[in-house]
Design brief:
Blueprint: H1 2-39, E1 43-45, H2 52-74, H3 95-126, E2 131-133, H4 134-157, H5 161-181, H6 202-225, H7 228-231, H8 239-267, H9 274-298, H10 304-325, H11 331-380
Antiparallel strand pairs: 1-2
């Protein structure tokens, strides 16, 4: 019996691995077909304009978006971001589901694009003045596309609320670091963090695009991270359940506002609208401060350490603001600490909410068999 169960659990994993290999092979062929005539007869630099690294970055970004969408369709759930544990397949797919899926797919694409760009720059520094023969360049580009397609397909197949937290963290880290490393002014930090988004450069594009897409993802995940169907099922005449549902809705509204305001920081750089930029940045921190205190009623099963972490993060933001007011901290340090704290808490919340939802779903799935077994035992007595 144990061997049969183990085989049933392994079969979906093996099927996913097989499909991911096919996706990687298809990516290899497509990238190779495009790269070979494009590179034919040329020796290409590793990084920079018209380089192998630039082609790999663009190809990787496109392949990542397509592989994610194909991976979700392969799951036969339609264009849904992911399915919660124990959730039955839905008959219809809403436009919101499609939008959320596309947003997560674009995040994978940007991660791949920026990641390959950074790797190309590092390799170019390691192989100074080296060039790549066109056949080798085509093979390298096709291989990079295959690796991207394989990895992103598996990410799509296994996507969950907890995995989404990892994607969000990787996306923000890669995007912000790329903006910092490519900033035309190496002393941007003497002004403020928002200076990264004020120039007409790839650095500003990377910075603002990262904030906008991250805001969209946070807004999208709010619906799933506060899903009352799994975290607080409806119960007639139960005031405790009603209060929890109300708390979850408050947290959902707060998370949506954080996402919208985060996107607003990228949509309205400081040189475009100082008022809207500052309102978005300050508003995001204020809403976060409220959500930290609302979440205890929304997720009472969460570990105490999670609530303590939120209070410590809130105190940290207050402390750095006071340091800035008295002149001990510069504005860049204040913005950086506040931003890191908010993102870190959001990522932890995603994981905790996913764990609570998985536990609740498992309990409902196991409930009926246990109840029926107990009933049979009583009847036999």
């Amino acid at each position: 019996m144990g061997d049969t169960v183990g085989q049933m659990r392994r079969t979906p994993l093996l099927k996913a691995e097989g499909a991911a290999i096919v996706a990687g092979a298809a990516s290899f062929v497509l990238a190779g077909i495009v790269a070979l005539p494009l590179f034919w007869g040329r020796d290409l630099p590793i990084a920079g304009p018209d380089s192998v690294g630039q082609f790999v970055a663009y190809a990787g970004g496109i392949v990542a978006v397509l592989a994610y969408v194909v991976g979700r369709l392969w799951m036969r759930d339609g264009l849904t971001p992911f399915a919660a544990p124990g959730e039955r397949r839905r008959a219809g797919i809403s436009p919101v589901d499609v939008f959320d899926t596309i947003a997560i797919a674009v995040a994978h694409g940007v991660i791949a694009l920026l990641g390959w760009l950074v790797l190309g720059t590092v390799l170019a520094d390691g192989f100074q003045d080296a060039t790549v023969y066109f056949l080798s360049a085509s093979a390298l580009a096709a291989t990079a596309a295959a690796v991207t397609g394989y990895a992103v397909f598996l990410s799509a197949v296994n996507m969950s609320l907890m995995r989404l937290s990892t994607v969000l963290a990787a996306f923000v880290i890669v995007g912000i670091l790329t903006a910092m490393l490519s900033a035309p002014d190496p002393h941007w930090w003497m002004l403020h963090l928002s200076a990264l988004g004020m120039t007409q450069s790839i650095s500003s594009l990377s910075f603002n695009l990262t904030l906008i897409i991250a805001g969209v993802i946070v807004t999208a995940m709010a619906r799933y991270a506060t899903d009352t169907r799994f975290l607080a099922p409806a119960s007639e005449g139960d005031p405790v359940a009603d209060r929890r549902r109300a708390a979850l809705i408050r947290v959902r509204v707060g998370l949506i506002l954080i996402g919208v305001l985060l996107a607003g920081v990228g949509l309205f750089p400081l040189n475009v609208s100082q008022v809207l930029h500052n309102v978005s940045a300050v508003g995001m921190v204020l809403v976060f401060s409220l959500v930290v205190f609302w979440v205890r009623a929304a997720l009472p099963e969460a570990p105490v350490a999670f609530f303590v972490l939120g209070y410590v993060f809130f105190a940290t933001i207050v402390a750095v603001l006071l340091f800035f007011v008295v002149g001990y901290y510069v504005l860049t340090a204040t913005e950086l600490v506040a931003g890191v704290v908010v993102f870190a808490w959001l990522i932890v919340y995603l994981r905790v909410s996913g764990a609570v939802g998985r536990r609740s779903s498992a309990g409902r799935l196991e409930g009926p068999p246990l109840a029926s077994a107990a009933g049979r035992a009583q009847r036999s007595e």
